[in-house]
């Protein structure tokens, strides 16, 4: 394709897509409308009285190959609760990737622990097991592994690290509903899995979250943390531990049940379109896609991620994102600012370590810095179109990268 920079919509050329060329999210229909209606009509709006949350918890846990699932308010507090259930507390170190949503690290701060960063693999954007092991100290208690974009991390390696060093392995599955590693869905491969049902996620109720585990004792602790310290089957004013109230409403669970039923068919569409996009973009000079990995037996397809190393080196990655918006892809994103560059987070992490007289371990994180400068992603909603829409998206991406690369 020969594209001159001047033909970019950013510079006044005709945009590659029109508004109605894009699929939208959320996808919903009669099932969502009628199930929410039924909950309202029942007058049982809280899970204390209804059985819709309990029903969804069973269905969702089974979907993720987990023995237990407990719903809660959101995916951020899901990680905090998972850490607390795993015994992580004041001054303990929790290893997290620097290239993820801020909640992965802030959750450690919420339980008084210190988030410590280990670098990612630049080819996949995922936490690197070798870097993780090199970051372990006598204070390390847990690792939060993120299945970023929906791509499962190397769970065999992390399970082995957990065993060898006696660490809890928490899976942040906020972007990985339905994703599978070596044939097993994520969520209970490690000790606890955490999920989000916030508006952008592949299963949503606007807000919401869940924790999953195979461990009966952890499940009981998680239940208590979500339910003001109550124990399953215990008395109303019997608080066996100190817990939060993080319960989901029946209305949210009604939406989630309908969304869960929809998920397999939508995942097939996302998978087909992600494959189409990958094929269309694989040979476009300047675009680098993550390599295929046979251990990833189902990709969650939350984000379509690619790198543009030359545009990054030429400091025009952000221009490329603006150019994509101008072409008709306003959902294109420059991705995360790496968390070790977030002042607020670093200030709090250091403050906890300082108050306890502990050193704060901060390694160089060159891969996180690199990928944060040259990554672009498209949201999952863009993977829900038909073949023509998907080809138009691919053409817009190729046009922008080719045009800006020619102008470097
Ligand atoms: C969305 C997200 C969260 C937080 O979930 P919320 O429900 O928005 O609190 C945590 N981790 C990752 C990787 C996420 O993408």
From TrEMBL:
CDD domains to which the protein is assigned, alphabetical: AHBA_syn
Q: Which cofactor does it need?
A: pyridoxal 5'-phosphate
Superkingdom field: Bacteria
Catalytic residues, chain numbering = 201 (proton acceptor)
**What taxonomic ancestry is recorded?**
Bacteria, Bacillati, Actinomycetota, Actinomycetes, Jiangellales
Which residues does this entry mark as bearing N6-(pyridoxal phosphate)lysine? 201
Q: Which GO terms describe its biological process?
A: polysaccharide biosynthetic process
Entry's InterPro entries? DegT/StrS_aminotransferase, PyrdxlP-dep_Trfase, PyrdxlP-dep_Trfase_major, PyrdxlP-dep_Trfase_small
Q: Which UniProt keywords apply?
A: Aminotransferase, Pyridoxal phosphate, Transferase
What Gene3D superfamilies does UniProt report for this protein, alphabetically?
Aspartate Aminotransferase, domain 1, Type I PLP-dependent aspartate aminotransferase-like (Major domain)
Q: Name one Pfam family in it.
A: DegT_DnrJ_EryC1
Molecular function as annotated in GO? pyridoxal phosphate binding; transaminase activity
Family, similarity comment: Belongs to the DegT/DnrJ/EryC1 family.
Q: What protein name is recorded for this chain?
A: DegT/DnrJ/EryC1/StrS family aminotransferase
Source organism:
Phytoactinopolyspora alkaliphila
Query: Has keyword Transferase?
Result: yes
